[in-house]
């Protein structure tokens, strides 16, 4: 996992060199072992999704960079935020959008399909970056990937930041909120999708919409409420 503090968002575009397992090999593995499926409740978006036969353990055995494969699964916050962007494209149409902690890139893909002028997707996991590139191509959209922890950087040069499900752990939530406060000071709009995780800063949020969606680790037939919020 690499983290960086580059100064401009264009400079942060992913240009990682090959590690113990090359990014090209990772892309081939994902394409061959994670089937392409429609996103639950968003049939216009398709992504590579892990199943019990995907063999992700093989990646862990071959690459010390391999961490928790959050990018290979659906998250309730990402699903609800993607639905919101597609149902109300005016929130991102014509704007520069950052999908923070992008995972599989579903939110960034939805923003691009909703008419965003430019979409960036940032994650600290090189496997997520590979998945985002594949999933963007599947959906015929263009996304600039950024392999970095942007919460350690200055606010990016964007109009909207989309945050799908980054409040599941206390330390992470604290760093994300500190970063988003700096972005608010630059008058960047913050949209958050979350199924009311324990560390969601509810006192600072305005509910914009609510949907029922599947969540991480659950079968897609089982759903739970999740909201889309504006941070203020």
Structure characteristics:
Rossmann fold, 232 residues, seven-stranded mixed sheet, alpha/beta, single chain, 29% helix, disordered N terminus
N→C terminal distance: 31 Å
- Arithmetic mean of pLDDT: 89
Spatial strand order of the main sheet: 5-4-3-6-7-9-8
* CATH homologous superfamily label: Vaccinia Virus protein VP39
SSE order in H/E notation? HEEHHEHEHEEHEEE
CATH topology category name:
Rossmann fold
The Rg value, from CA coordinates, equals: 16 Å
CATH architecture: 3-Layer(aba) Sandwich
- Tell me the domain tally: 1
Q: β content, as a range?
A: 15-25%
Q: Please give the count of helices.
A: 6
Write down the CATH class: Alpha Beta
Helix share of residues?
25-40%
Q: Low-confidence segments, ≥5 residues, pLDDT <50?
A: 1-18
Outline type: globular
For the largest beta-sheet, the strand count, sense and barrel status come to: 7 strands, mixed
* Number of β-strand runs: 9
Q: Structural class, from secondary structure content?
A: alpha/beta
Region (Disordered): 1-20
Keywords: Methyltransferase, Transferase
GO biological process, one term: methylation
Organism: Rhizobium tropici
Concise description?
The chain has 232 residues and is an alpha/beta fold. The protein has helices at residues 23-33, 56-62, 76-87, 106-113, 126-138, 170-185; strands at residues 36-39, 42-48, 96-100, 118-123, 144-147, 160-164, 189-194, 205-213, 224-231.
Structure description:
- The protein is of the alpha/beta class.
- The chain has a single domain (21-229), classed as Rossmann fold (3-Layer(aba) Sandwich), CATH 3.40.50.150.
- Helix content is 29%, strand content 23%.
- It has 6 helices and 9 strands, in the order αββααβαβαββαβββ.
- The protein has helices at 23-33, 56-62, 76-87, 106-113, 126-138, 170-185, and strands at 36-39, 42-48, 96-100, 118-123, 144-147, 160-164, 189-194, 205-213, 224-231.
- The chain is globular, with a radius of gyration of 16 Å.
